[in-house]
Amino acid sequence: MLNRRQLLRSPFFLAADVLMLTLSFHLALIFRQSLPWPSPSGSLEHQFWLLYLALPISLVSLHLQGLYRHDRPRQGGALFLTLVRAAFAAFLALLAVLFLFQVSAASRVVMVHYAVLQVVLLGSYRLLASRTMRRLRRLGWDRPQLLLLGSVERLREILAGLEKEDGPVYEIVGYLLEAGANPDSRGAAGRAPARGESPAAGAKLGTLADLETILHTRAVDEVLVATADPLSPAIQEALWVCEEEGKIVHLRADWYQPKLARILPNEIFGLPAITLSSLPDRNLELFCKRGLDLAASAILLVLLSPLLAALALAIRRESPGPALFRQLRTGQNGRPFSCYKFRTMVVHDQSIKAHLRAHHNEMDGPVFKIAEDPRVTPLGAWLRRLSLDELPQLWNVLKGDMSLVGPRPLPCEEVAAFAEREQRRRHQVRPGLTCFWQIRGRSHLSFREWMKLDLQYIDNWSLYTDLVILLRTVPAVLGRKGAC
């Protein structure tokens, strides 16, 4: 869904706005008390009730002005102009409510001071927060991985601008040139580097033809397209690749018509750009989702610790080998991570798995599933039927590699064999312990149906959907629906 800095933005500003608006109202009361003439509305100590009416009206006005949306960044004069409009609209709405209910015990002077002070305080702390976050990113905190695409001239401007900055706010993965373009001396060899290599910022990774290879072998959060010919077929194809794989794309013009993503106005490196994002714009719900993941995984790990210890001991006693099985799986935006499970098989040579995959695989597509796997131990079969082998993944949820609800993480070698680009869009969100696949048939579904359900989950995500899936997972697991 959204990366961490987008995820934290709206809840932080919402909480800070409540504090600043409350402070603005108290300061408005103090300023009114300092005036030489008496208040016709009665004692100012009795004006605090007005805050409970003014506060929600102000928050709604700020929301309607788009100040809690990550796709509408505002700075400087634009920010203060938006805050003035929000304060004026809230002031008029508050007057209308007081007039409608014929409330006369409200100080209009306090309301005017409150409107002016909220513009000053909200604008000041938002500018300070924005500059602080930018400074932290320049120091290396939470830098997104950025891939550059385009022509030599346009990319040279961007790279030159990076060298002039006192600290980058992005971690540059490298750049890909349009076909026929010749890199300057800063470029490296024109091949796509293998997994594990770390090119320097501004290193040439190849051409646009290598885009899929780079996205499949490297962690890329965002892509910046800078080209003199934005309507070329090669650029159009590159945009479709990024869109289908769920990458956030920054463009320097508003010429592209997306099939799935929303067009968002933005600014990058001081240049006007538009951003394509197929992620849901529900920051507050995403923040609550991560909070639910942290709380639930921590509580369950503590409560289930005796069961986890007993299962680990039983696995060790049944067959030689470790109790936990670790496997490298594909996480959000293609980041590999170690996924933990209880070992349900005997320790075996990988050639056995290759033989079973070649002759006994019961799942179509690149995924390997077999109902009667000869490698599975009796205890392991019981663990699989009840999905108890997945319990150690609560640690992955606590770490942030996974979520309680999301597309199931697949081994990296299976993801590498995906035939359709759109199927990789399932990796734009954190993988989860359960999703639609678990409650709608599990192994009885085809691979294509499985991928379709994952994309349906992403495109229609809501916190309510997660709660429904969690509640329906329990009977699905106990009923052993589609388990293998």
β-sheet strand percentage: 5-15%
Task: Classify the helix fraction into a percent range.
Answer: 40-55%
The N- and C-terminal alpha carbons lie at a distance of 30 Å
Uncertain stretches = 1-8, 185-201
Number of domains: 3
Average of per-residue pLDDT values:
79
What kind of sheet is the major sheet? 7 strands, mixed
Strand order of the largest sheet: 3-2-1-4-5-7-6
The tally of beta strands, per DSSP, is 11
**Cα-atom Rg, whole angstroms?**
27 Å
H-E string: HHHHEHEEHEHEEEHHEEHHHEHEHHH
- How many helices? 16
Provide the structure class.
Answer: alpha/beta
**What is the global morphology?**
globular
Topology:
Layout: H1 4-34, H2 49-64, H3 76-100, H4 108-138, E1 145-150, H5 152-164, E2 171-177, E3 204-207, H6 211-217, E4 222-226, H7 233-244, E5 248-251, E6 262-268, E7 271-277, H8 283-303, H9 305-318, E8 324-330, E9 336-342, H10 350-360, H11 378-385, H12 393-399, E10 403-405, H13 412-416, E11 432-434, H14 436-439, H15 447-459, H16 463-478
Parallel strand pairs: 1-2, 1-4, 2-3, 4-5, 10-11
Antiparallel strand pairs: 5-7, 6-7, 8-9
